[in-house]
Every structure is written in C-alpha cells, then in structure tokens.
Amino acid sequence: MDLKHLRSFVVLAEELHFGRAAHRLGLTQSALSQQLQKLEAVLEVQLLVRTSREVALTEAGTEFLEPALGALAAANRAYDSVADIKAGRAGRLRLGSLSAGMNGILAPILERYRVRMPTSIIEVHGSDSRSQERSLVAWELDAVVVRGLLDHSVIATIPLTEEKLVAFLPEGHPLADRPGVWLEELKDEHFVFWQRQRMTSFHDSVLKVCRAHGFEPNIQAYGDTLEAHLTLVAAGGVISLQSDMNTSIDRRGVRMVPVLDEDVRFNLWLAYLATKQTPALNAFLACVQEVLHHAPVPPVTA
C-alpha cells in the first residue's frame, strides 16, 4: 500500500471535492482519480462514490478513514525520528558511572544534554570502574565515569574533576564537630569498607592512601551501598571514608567531616570509545566540554 495513495484518500475524504483535493496535493484531477483507483484495487473495496454533483464516502471508506489517518501519523513519526537522529537530536545514550559521578559532575552535564537532546532516551548504570571498562569495550555503554585511566587502545578519556575524601563519623564522636581531620588522626579507628569485588577502584585507592599515611585501616564491617555504610556508622563503633562528591548526603546520627590532607585526591575521568560515533554520544561529549569550560546553560526551547 502506497503512502501517497493513503494521503490522497485522506485529503479527498476531508474535502469531498476532487478539484480542491487535487489542488492541495499538487496533482491533476486525473492523477488523483488514478491514485484512488489503485488504492481501491489493493483494498478490493470502493471508498468513495462520485457523481456529477457530489463526492461521498462509502461505508468502507468511512471505516477506513481513521486507520488511514493513524498510518500516516505513524509514518510521519518514523520519518521525524530518523530526521532527529540524523540531525543529532535523538537516539539513546547509555552511561556508566561511579556513585561519585552520579552525586557530582554528571548531573549538570545531563542537564545540558536534556536541553540539547530533548527526545533522547538516557540510561545510567552504576558499577565499578573495571566492570564499566568491560561494558564499554563490548559496546554495551557509550561512556563511563571512572577513577584512573583505562588502559585500552580504543578508549579515549577526558579528565572531569578531582575528588577528595570525607569521613562519616557517628554523632558524639570526638572528631565529629571538627571543621576537618587529618588522615593520620583516624589511624586508631574502626572502619566500614566497601567489598573489594563491589568497588575495586575505590577500595584500593582508600587502602593505598591510608598505607601512605602510615597505617593499615582496621576494617570491622563491610557494606555494598553508601546507605549501608551510613547505617553502620550511625549505629556507632565504625567510621567510613567516602568521596567528597557525596557531601549532599544527610543522614540522622552521622556527621560528615572533610579530610584535610592535600595529597589525598583521586581523579575522575570520562572514558568513551574513540571509534564510536553516534549523535547522542557526540552531543554528550559537547555537553561535557561546556561544563568543564563553564559555558552558560542554553535556554529550553519549545
């Protein structure tokens, strides 16, 4: 069934006049009649009755009008979707991020992306750097926020930001009301840590800086989510070292105190496949550069 024939039928049904319908369609009346005949031949029914005085829909034509309108609308949506993708206004963006990225720099980037690509579908998946690297190389993700550089020939990276450490302490802890603490002051504390298989990069990074400051952390508990860590801290007896990207977290019974050591910093990177070019990814990378260079957020357009 030819969409041109469908459109001709719809216009003719609206006008109920061959001359006006042909004018709207930019056709001769003869060409319009031929298109109608071809459509009727495909459907094997008569859609319109034409006399010297009027044009009227048959019962079959009346029933066919609504699905014909729906088919044309669906075709237009399909065309618009492809046009949006070609113009870089649509598509699916699949991101992976550490929790530090979700609680920090990712939100303003996605705010801009939403303005630039209002019809795009966004997926955000949380996982550790190593599993994200595997997903990226397998083309399961378009870009990921990770700690440290990923060693792979097809992966390109952009430095996003630095993160420091904060200590989450139970209320009533001797250091809880301090404006900041030195890492060395925590050497005799009991810690809740991430399971290494759950957050490999952060687990190893925190362990490394503690050892660099002269102590091995006394790990008394493990948690596989930030909420689990804070629950254990609020219960008393342990403290938790976390990224300062989580400073917006507010939990009853827990105080957040910055770690003051200047050498305790971790880099967050955006990694993506240099060989992958999609309108959605290219738009996202442009938004990353805008945020890094503090460009103003563009206005939302209708």
Question: Secondary-structure map with pairings?
Answer:
Elements lengths: L2 H13 L2 H8 L3 H15 L4 E3 L4 E3 L1 H28 L5 E6 L1 H4 L3 H11 L4 E6 L2 H9 L5 E5 L7 E16 L19 E5 L5 H13 L5 E6 L2 H10 L4 E4 L10 E5 L6 E9 L5 H14 L10
Parallel strand pairs: 3-4, 3-5, 7-8
Antiparallel strand pairs: 1-2, 5-11, 6-9, 6-10, 6-11
Mean pLDDT: 87
CATH topology-level name of the largest domain: D-Maltodextrin-Binding Protein, domain 2
Number of distinct helices: 10
Helix-strand category: alpha/beta
- Percent in helix: 40-55%
- Give helix and strand order, one letter per element, not per position: HHHEEHEHHEHEEEHEHEEEH
Shape: elongated
Q: pLDDT under 50 segments (min length 5)?
A: none
Count all strands and give the number.
Answer: 11
Proportion of residues in β-strands: 15-25%
- Quick one: CATH superfamily of the largest domain? Periplasmic binding protein-like II
Multimeric state: single chain
* C-alpha termini separation: 35 Å
Biggest pleated-sheet summary: 7 strands, mixed
Fold and architecture overview:
- The protein is an alpha/beta fold and 302 residues long.
- It has 3 domains: 3-86, Winged helix-like DNA-binding domain superfamily/Winged helix DNA-binding domain (Arc Repressor Mutant, subunit A, Orthogonal Bundle); 92-160 and 267-292, Periplasmic binding protein-like II (D-Maltodextrin-Binding Protein, domain 2), CATH 3.40.190.10; 163-265, Periplasmic binding protein-like II (D-Maltodextrin-Binding Protein, domain 2).
- It has 10 helices and 11 strands.
- Strands 3, 4, 5, 6, 9, 10 and 11 form a 7-stranded mixed beta sheet that branches. The chain has a two-stranded antiparallel ribbon with strand order 1-2. A two-stranded parallel ribbon has the order 7-8.
